[in-house]
Amino acid sequence: MNKPETSPFHQKVIIVTGGANGIGKAIAKRFAERRAQVAVADADSENGAALCESLRQEGHEAAFFACDISQPDAAAAMISDVKNTFGSVDILINNAGISEFKPLFETDVTDWDRVLNTNLRGAFLCAKEAAKVMPERSAVVNISSTRALMSEPGSEAYAASKGGLLALTHALAVSLQDKRIRVNAVSPGWIHTGDPKSLREKDHRQHLTGRVGRPDDIARACLFLCDPENDFITGENLVIDGGMTRKMIYEH
């Protein structure tokens, strides 16, 4: 890992959608520590503003942008505001998403649209608008999920949105090749964002690594994919799940 003083992200401008909490917050903090200029975009104004204030107090450059990417014009306005504030957009992490699960026969079109508009349409719009102003050797990372590849009951909208993100990833990688913008996805497995004491031993044992995932596991993956030295990686999906989806499960 590059030390901050030799960081490839020094003065690069990164947008983290859904950056106020959980995985997005961890991503924002890790890039800030590597001297990036961090734009946190989120509908959660209270936590988003508090995170950026905390980062500034630690000597980092950060600004909060209130944005609900489920709204059609929100992405364009947010990208424009970030460009006007920092002067560039070099990295986009499409992390914003809502996780809603509802029995199939109780899921209506309103439920479907709410999830798809945030998780998939919002990512598409943010990527399209950011790519208009990104310089060569920029990077986009879409945060998908292992639920794009496997499911539990009642996850139709969420699974479809995350599966769509994987398809969007390779489509964008092809469309943006002439601009030398790389586009990749990260598919987290079980990433615990709450109190670690609430986890049980059998939760950890479901993973080949012997533990449930942490937000920093995803943040480090984003650092890797966005490093310009890794410019031979595009259109890919990196599964970060502690090997959970490689483990065969039998009833005993």
UniProtKB/TrEMBL annotation:
Gene3D superfamilies: NAD(P)-binding Rossmann-like Domain. This is SDR family oxidoreductase. The lineage of its organism: Bacteria, Pseudomonadati, Balneolota, Balneolia, Balneolales. PROSITE patterns: ADH_SHORT. InterPro entries: KR_dom, NAD(P)-bd_dom_sf, Sc_DH/Rdtase_CS, SDR_fam. Belongs to the short-chain dehydrogenases/reductases (SDR) family. GO terms for molecular function: oxidoreductase activity, acting on the CH-OH group of donors, NAD or NADP as acceptor. GO terms for biological process: fatty acid elongation. It comes from Natronogracilivirga saccharolytica. Residues 12-193 form the Ketoreductase domain.
